[in-house]
Design a protein that fits this description.
The chain is α+β, with helices and mostly antiparallel strands. The protein has a single domain, classed as Roll (Transcriptional Co-activator pc4, Chain A). The chain has two helices and eight strands; from the N terminus they run ββββαββββα. It has helices at 47-63, 116-132; strands spanning 2-5, 11-14, 25-34, 37-46, 65-70, 77-84, 88-98, 101-112. Strands 1-2-3-4 form a four-stranded antiparallel beta sheet. Strands 5-6-7-8 form a four-stranded antiparallel beta sheet. Strand 5 (65-70) and strand 6 (77-84) form a beta hairpin. Helix 1 runs antiparallel to helix 2 (116-132). The longest helix is centred in the middle third of the chain and has 17 residues, at 47-63. It is globular. The two termini are 18 Å apart. It holds the Pfam family WapI. InterPro entries: WapI.
């Protein structure tokens, strides 16, 4: 399970992940909870996209500056984290009810760098799981 943000407040939850195909695809439920709104979808991810995102996240954590973006090929769900160099991270994203169409929830909230180590560790666990189950 991957959680970004405060589970008692604004957050994104991804997981648990489903069976990983030989091509590196898996499906996972996604929950988005932001001030006044909550959404649930099932989205497809590709492990390659998760790997790119994990590298960007590590760089963001090291410098607290820049952008890390999860942008799955399916286009149903994605988000970015943007650091200001002082430990403040803006989370901005979208979720469609279907792959790239249907109702769309656009969201944004803020976290600080203390959320990143656990988040990065969760992303790495997904990569390790998918590598051992393909």
């Amino acid at each position: 399970m991957i959680v970004l943000g405060n589970e008692g407040g604004e957050h994104i939850t991804i997981g648990p992940i489903g069976r990983v195909s030989r091509d590196g695809w898996f499906q996972s439920p996604v929950k988005i909870k932001v001030n006044g709104f909550e959404g649930h979808i099932n989205s497809y991810f590709e492990t390659q996209d998760i790997g790119v995102f994990q590298k960007q996240l590590s760089s963001l954590y090291d410098t607290l500056r820049g952008v890390a973006e999860l942008k799955p090929t399916e286009g149903q769900f994605g988000f970015s984290l943007t650091g200001d160099g002082q430990g403040h991270i803006e989370v901005k994203g979208y979720a469609y009810s279907q792959a790239s169409y249907g109702s769309c929830l656009e969201f944004e909230f803020n976290i600080d760098q203390t959320h990143l180590p656990k988040f990065i560790s969760s992303i790495q666990k997904v990569l390790d799981y998918s590598a051992s189950n393909t």
